Amino acid sequence: MDEAGTRPALAGLCAGYIDRVARCGGPRTPAHHATRSRFHQRSAGQFRCRFAQTRDVGLVNVRAICFDATGTLIETSENVGDVYRRVALDYGVDLPAWRLEDAFRRIVGGAPPRGTEGNSMSARRSGEVNWWSERVRETFQATDSTARFEDFRGFAKTLFDHYRSADAWRLRPGTSEMLCEMRRRNLPLAIVSNFDHRLPEILKGIEIANFFEFVAIPSKIGQAKPDAPPFEAVAARLDVPLTELVYVGDDSKESLRAIEALGLQVVDMRDVEDLKTLPDRLGPTATLVHDPMLDESDCL
């Protein structure tokens, strides 16, 4: 790196192709069909050239990795609509699962952040329960405005507790193999998620909690992604600078750009065909000397 933050070998490329990069995200070459270039203006006349990650382009100076949770490492074991319908039947409401699924996606997709309001962790956790209760109410109202529950509070609590259970979740394909390989390389791992306070219990229940040195969630930190505090907390805990911390997640493109602007290297899960291939993207500095005393019981 030079003082401007540009790798010297890429300086000419950055200068020569800046117009095309600004217009279409970077040139394609026969050797790297999936490689895209992006430029980020740093200060007057200075640009930083960074390549989106592909199998052909490794990450640089990786010292630690943090992951999103849902949609990246774990996913629900059943469709949400099926669960909502089944539980609702016990409370006297019968609605089609596919309509509940559609309404849920729309409602949660447009909902405000959760877990950030309150002056204490307990207050923020209580707020998360209320947040989910309101989303459930909105989901059923959006599905059928005539639906009525005799005990909606009990219904919402049953759903909330269902998704606290490890049985409601499963590992995404390749997660176990990838985490074991990261452990073999002695890479510190953490989670940065906007999920609620149930997450640590879920991770423990599906037996991957021991892979992570820190779990940053809104109720604990007081702020959510893509704001800086969750990532700063992880960097401090793992004792690495943000520039040597990688974030892997399926957040919106806008959120991933905001996270990258903090200095992190970012991997968009939509570009990862198989989690087992993720370690192959790491540069040689990430392959550390194996510690024979490291507990690998989770990988047996």
Q: Could you explain the architecture of this structure?
A:
The longest helix is centred in the middle third of the chain and has 23 residues, at 121-143. By secondary structure, the chain is an alpha/beta fold. A hairpin with a 2-residue loop joins strand 1 (37-43) and strand 2. Mean pLDDT is 81; it is low at 1-57 and 285-294. The chain has 11 helices and 9 strands. The protein is 38% helix and 13% strand. It has 3 domains: 8-51, no CATH class; 64-72 and 172-299, 3-Layer(aba) Sandwich (Rossmann fold), CATH 3.40.50.1000; 77-168, Haloacid dehalogenase-like hydrolase (DNA polymerase, domain 1), CATH 1.10.150. The chain has helices spanning 8-16, 18-24, 80-90, 97-109, 121-143, 152-162, 175-184, 199-205, 218-221, 228-238, 253-261, and strands at residues 37-43, 46-51, 64-67, 74-76, 169-171, 189-192, 214-216, 245-249, 265-268. The protein has a 5-stranded parallel sheet. Strands 1-2 form a two-stranded antiparallel sheet.
Secondary-structure arrangement, i.e. CATH architecture of the largest domain: 3-Layer(aba) Sandwich
**CATH-wise, what's the superfamily of the largest domain?**
HAD superfamily/HAD-like
User: How would you state the average pLDDT, rounded?
Assistant: 81
Structural class by helix and strand composition? alpha/beta
Total helix count?
A: 11
Beta fraction of the residues? Answer: 5-15%
How would you describe this structure in keywords?
globular; 300 residues; 9 strands; two-stranded antiparallel sheet; alpha/beta; Rossmann fold; DNA polymerase, domain 1; disordered N terminus; five-stranded parallel β-sheet
